[in-house]
């Protein structure tokens, strides 16, 4: 059974959680509140401080039932997200056992990430939204679940050069499109925020800013390329989600 927490309920129940879950939240809190090394995503920091974020824990990404837990968590979150605040996001901590920590490469985590999204999408009880293209190679495509579109950030323990994508366990942050639209509702504000984020990225990461980081809807932008950034500047030749989308629409 998955539980959806806010910051207050999670901190209240922290001693009852398994060790890995306590450590995951502790690490996240440190990342969000570090005054010496400012996390690049400013809206995420605002969301943490204002208690707009929601949190959940799921199992080993290699386990078959993990996608079921993720689907249940994401459905529950989607149904309440608009009541959680303007900086809403769902933070999903994924159990990353010691063998994964020691032996898994960035590319291995990338494969597990897309596998999890694919299998979770199969469990969606709702049709793909009609206003979102089926083809990830269209510039307005994004991951959808329960009739909501999301930006699905991933961080892993294997990332080294790109510290903005490093975390103590595998972690997802799902931000609804309506949140991003609200944050970027003014061209002046949007330009200022993007410049600040890029300044922080340049200071936070050893790697240069990834070439895939562009704006939603731009002609040469593909959201899926931004979801899981590798530790270098390489990009997969094809979206690992494309085949499953065709399967879903063919068989519904």
Description:
The chain has 10 helices and 5 strands. The chain is of the alpha+beta class and 252 residues long. Strands 1-2-5-4-3 form a 5-stranded mixed beta sheet, sandwiched between helices. It is globular, with a radius of gyration of 17 Å. The protein has one domain (7-251). Mean pLDDT is 93; it is low at 243-252.
Backbone CA Rg: 17 Å
Question: Based on DSSP secondary structure assignment, what is the total number of beta strands?
Answer: 5
In angstroms, what separates the terminal alpha carbons? 27 Å
The share of residues in helices is 40-55%
**Tally the helices: what do you get?**
10
Percent range for β-strand residues: 5-15%
Let me know the largest β-sheet.
5 strands, mixed
Mean pLDDT: 93
Our count of domains comes out at 1
- Write out the strand line-up for the largest beta sheet, numbering strands in chain order: 1-2-5-4-3
- Residue ranges: pLDDT <50 for 5 or more in a row? 243-252
Query: Which class best fits the helix and strand makeup?
Result: alpha+beta
Shape: globular
Question: Order of SSEs, N→C?
Answer: HHHEHEHHEEEHHHH
Helices and strands, with pairings:
Blueprint: H1 7-12, H2 19-33, H3 42-49, E1 53-58, H4 66-80, E2 89-94, H5 98-103, H6 106-121, E3 143-145, E4 148-155, E5 170-176, H7 177-183, H8 187-204, H9 223-227, H10 242-251
Helix pairs in contact: 4-6
């Amino acid at each position: 059974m998955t539980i959806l927490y806010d910051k207050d309920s999670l901190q209240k129940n922290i001693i009852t959680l398994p060790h890995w879950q306590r450590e995951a939240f502790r690490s996240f809190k440190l990342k969000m509140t570090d005054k010496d090394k400012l996390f690049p995503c400013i809206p995420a920091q605002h969301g943490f401080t204002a208690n707009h974020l929601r949190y959940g824990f799921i199992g080993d990404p290699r386990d078959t039932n993990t996608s079921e837990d993720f689907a249940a968590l994401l459905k529950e979150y989607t149904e309440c997200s608009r009541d959680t605040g303007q900086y809403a996001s769902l933070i999903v901590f994924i159990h990353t056992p010691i063998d994964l920590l020691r032996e898994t490469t960035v590319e291995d985590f990338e494969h597990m990430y897309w596998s999890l999204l694919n299998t979770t999408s199969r469990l969606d009880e709702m049709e793909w939204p009609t206003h979102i293209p089926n083809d990830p190679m269209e510039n307005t495509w994004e991951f959808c679940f329960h009739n909501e579109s999301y930006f699905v950030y991933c961080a892993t323990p294997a990332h080294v050069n790109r510290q903005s994508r490093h975390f103590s366990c595998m972690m997802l942050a799902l931000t609804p499109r309506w949140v991003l639209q609200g944050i970027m509702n003014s061209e002046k504000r949007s330009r200022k925020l993007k410049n600040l984020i890029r300044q922080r990225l340049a200071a936070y990461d050893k790697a240069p800013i990834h070439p895939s980081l562009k704006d939603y809807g731009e002609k040469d932008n593909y959201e899926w390329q931004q979801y899981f950034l590798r530790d270098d500047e390489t990009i997969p030749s094809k979206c690992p989600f494309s085949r499953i989308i065709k399967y879903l629409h063919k068989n519904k």
